[in-house]
Amino acid sequence: MAFVVRAGHAALRCARNASANSRDAASFRGLFHVLDDRLTLGGVGVPRGRGLWFRDQAPFFTATKGNSETNEEGKAKEGASTSEGSSTDAEPLDAAELQASLQEKHTQILQFEEQIAEANDKVLRTLADMENLRERMNRQSENSRLFAIQGFVKGLLDVSDNLHRAADAVPADFKEADGSEIPPEKILSLLKSLHEGVVMTEKQLLQVFKQNQVVRYDPEGDVFDPELHMALFELPDASKEVGTVGAVVKMGYTLNGRVVRPAEVGVVRAP
Fold first, then answer.
1. How distant, in Å, are the alpha carbons of 8, 21, 55, 95, 96 from that of 11?
2. What one-character-per-residue DSSP string does 206-218 give?
3. Where are the domains of the chain?
4. Cβ–Cβ < 8 Å for 51, 36
5. Under a CB-based contact definition with an 8 Å cutoff, are residues 66 and 91 in contact?
């Protein structure tokens, strides 16, 4: 009996150590049935419960066998997949296809390089155009600043010429004489000519002002406005309304509606 028990225990240890091998597990499962029969039916003095214990270990080996078979199937499938992948990866490429692919990539690279060169050329041209435009705008701005009043000055040239003619119209003997030697009628004729020339010159000057949006205004009789008038003195005058402009010393001028010089005036006050 002791031998059988020791054999059963040894078989159990071996079975557990060999559980990964499905064939050994099946063999030891059969051995447990034999031991169980000998312990329970052979008249050996072993309790029934201990003998049945060997039989109860059968499910353990059954499960072990199933797991082992499953593991072996998985390993087999993995091996097959690995073999297939290795065979696929190891499949040599066709030389003609490889050459065609390389040629296609080379053509694409050449096209990209051409596009890059074209884009770079456009960028450089654009930068050059922008630099030229900037320099041209700077020159125009500087010229505008320096010659902004060129048209106005050109209009004043005729006024200057007329004033020069008026000065030359006076004879030399008139300039040197004290007046007693010049006949009165000649003096009156000269004064009349000078007056007409001055009036004509003033009209011409006002025309030049108008062309350049310069307007002269005479505020006499208007209500005093500190935005347009500069009061120099007060003028007592009962015939005029108090607070109005009674006398104009200098007329005012505006440029595009903005006062360039306010009119210098005398304001009427109560006598």
1. 5, 15, 13, 63, 66
2. HHHHHHTTEEEE-
3. 2-71, 213-271
4. yes
5. no
The tens digit of pLDDT for each residue in 42-96 reads: 444 444 444 444 455 555 545 444 454 555 555 555 555 555 544 445 456 688 8
Q: Summarize the confidence of residues 10-22 as an average pLDDT.
A: 52
- Give the separation between CA 124 and CA 132, rounded to whole angstroms: 12
Q: Please answer whether residues 223 and 238 qualify as being in contact, where contact means their C-beta atoms are separated by less than 8 angstroms.
A: no
Q: Please state the φ and ψ torsions of residue 178, each to the nearest 5 degrees.
A: -90, 0
- The fold for domain 213-271 equals Nucleotide Exchange Factor Grpe; Chain A, domain 2 (2.30.22)
pLDDT tens readout for residues 209-223: 999 999 999 999 999
d(CA 8, CA 5): 5
What is the C-alpha separation between 253 and 213, in angstroms, rounded?
10
Query: What tens digit of pLDDT does each residue of 190-248 get?
Result: 888 888 889 999 999 999 999 999 999 999 999 999 999 999 999 999 899 999 999 99
Q: How many residues appear in the chain?
A: 271
Q: Give percent above pLDDT 90 in the chain.
A: 40
Report residue 143 as tokens: 């010229």
Nearest Cα neighbor of 250 from 266, 271, 270 is 266
* pTM of structure: 0.48
229-236 vs 263-269, strand pairing mode: parallel
Distance CA 104, CA 98 (A): 10
232's tokens: 């120099």
Map residue 255 onto helix, strand or coil.
strand
Q: Residue 154 — pLDDT band, cuts 50, 70, 90?
A: confident
Cβ–Cβ < 8 Å for 231, 245: no
Bridge partners (DSSP) listed for residue 248: 265
